[in-house]
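Field reference: "sequence" (input) and "structure" (output). Example, GDSL esterase/lipase:
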Amino acid sequence: MLGKTGQQLAFKGFTPPYLSPTTAGPKILQGFVNANSACCHVAGRFGGLIPCGPPSEVCRERSKYIFWDPYHPSDAANLIIARRLLYGNSNDISPINVLQLIQS
Protein backbone atom coordinates (compact mmCIF):
# COMPACT_ATOMS: atom_id res chain seq x y z
CA MET A 1 0.00 0.00 0.00
CA LEU A 2 1.29 3.43 -0.89
CA GLY A 3 1.18 6.18 1.67
CA LYS A 4 2.33 9.76 1.31
CA THR A 5 4.84 10.93 3.91
CA GLY A 6 5.77 14.57 3.32
CA GLN A 7 6.83 14.64 -0.32
CA GLN A 8 8.02 11.03 -0.38
CA LEU A 9 5.94 8.06 -1.39
CA ALA A 10 6.68 4.97 0.66
CA PHE A 11 5.35 1.46 0.93
CA LYS A 12 4.29 0.50 4.43
CA GLY A 13 7.44 -0.84 6.11
CA PHE A 14 9.65 0.03 3.10
CA THR A 15 11.93 3.03 2.72
CA PRO A 16 13.24 3.61 -0.83
CA PRO A 17 16.66 5.15 -1.46
CA TYR A 18 16.43 8.77 -2.56
CA LEU A 19 19.13 10.85 -4.14
CA SER A 20 17.99 14.21 -2.90
CA PRO A 21 20.95 16.48 -2.17
CA THR A 22 19.47 17.11 1.27
CA THR A 23 19.10 13.43 2.22
CA ALA A 24 21.71 11.53 0.20
CA GLY A 25 24.80 12.95 1.87
CA PRO A 26 28.21 13.84 0.42
CA LYS A 27 29.29 10.22 -0.18
CA ILE A 28 26.40 9.59 -2.58
CA LEU A 29 26.85 12.91 -4.37
CA GLN A 30 30.56 12.31 -4.93
CA GLY A 31 31.27 12.28 -8.66
CA PHE A 32 28.23 14.36 -9.57
CA VAL A 33 28.76 17.98 -10.51
CA ASN A 34 25.10 18.97 -10.58
CA ALA A 35 22.48 17.93 -8.06
CA ASN A 36 19.89 20.64 -8.56
CA SER A 37 19.08 20.89 -12.26
CA ALA A 38 18.14 18.59 -15.13
CA CYS A 39 20.63 17.43 -17.76
CA CYS A 40 17.93 17.59 -20.45
CA HIS A 41 16.19 20.95 -20.10
CA VAL A 42 14.15 23.56 -21.91
CA ALA A 43 13.00 26.16 -19.42
CA GLY A 44 12.80 27.00 -15.75
CA ARG A 45 15.31 27.95 -13.11
CA PHE A 46 16.58 24.38 -12.75
CA GLY A 47 15.54 23.10 -16.16
CA GLY A 48 12.47 21.47 -14.68
CA LEU A 49 9.63 23.56 -16.03
CA ILE A 50 9.06 21.65 -19.28
CA PRO A 51 9.73 17.91 -19.81
CA CYS A 52 12.60 16.84 -22.07
CA GLY A 53 11.70 16.83 -25.76
CA PRO A 54 12.92 17.79 -29.26
CA PRO A 55 13.59 21.48 -28.44
CA SER A 56 15.53 20.56 -25.28
CA GLU A 57 19.21 21.14 -24.65
CA VAL A 58 21.20 18.18 -23.30
CA CYS A 59 24.27 18.51 -21.10
CA ARG A 60 27.61 17.17 -22.38
CA GLU A 61 28.41 14.90 -19.43
CA ARG A 62 25.20 13.06 -18.58
CA SER A 63 26.88 10.92 -15.92
CA LYS A 64 27.67 14.05 -13.88
CA TYR A 65 24.00 14.97 -13.33
CA ILE A 66 21.66 13.40 -10.79
CA PHE A 67 18.55 14.30 -12.79
CA TRP A 68 17.97 13.54 -16.47
CA ASP A 69 14.80 15.62 -16.75
CA PRO A 70 12.37 17.19 -14.27
CA TYR A 71 11.02 13.79 -13.22
CA HIS A 72 13.65 11.10 -13.75
CA PRO A 73 17.06 10.31 -12.28
CA SER A 74 19.95 10.03 -14.74
CA ASP A 75 21.40 6.63 -15.68
CA ALA A 76 24.25 7.24 -13.21
CA ALA A 77 21.79 8.04 -10.42
CA ASN A 78 19.63 5.01 -11.33
CA LEU A 79 22.68 2.78 -11.00
CA ILE A 80 23.23 4.04 -7.45
CA ILE A 81 19.54 3.58 -6.63
CA ALA A 82 19.60 0.00 -7.97
CA ARG A 83 22.73 -0.88 -5.97
CA ARG A 84 21.23 0.57 -2.81
CA LEU A 85 17.99 -1.36 -3.36
CA LEU A 86 19.91 -4.61 -3.89
CA TYR A 87 22.71 -4.31 -1.34
CA GLY A 88 21.87 -1.34 0.90
CA ASN A 89 21.73 -1.33 4.67
CA SER A 90 18.83 -0.14 6.82
CA ASN A 91 19.76 3.50 6.10
CA ASP A 92 19.01 2.85 2.42
CA ILE A 93 16.15 0.36 2.45
CA SER A 94 14.26 -1.34 5.24
CA PRO A 95 13.33 -3.68 6.71
CA ILE A 96 15.59 -5.69 4.32
CA ASN A 97 17.25 -5.13 0.96
CA VAL A 98 16.23 -6.96 -2.23
CA LEU A 99 19.11 -9.45 -2.07
CA GLN A 100 18.12 -10.42 1.48
CA LEU A 101 14.53 -10.79 0.33
CA ILE A 102 15.56 -13.13 -2.50
CA GLN A 103 17.71 -15.20 -0.13
CA SER A 104 15.00 -15.54 2.52
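Residues 25-103 form one domain.
The first strand starts at residue 2 and ends at 5.
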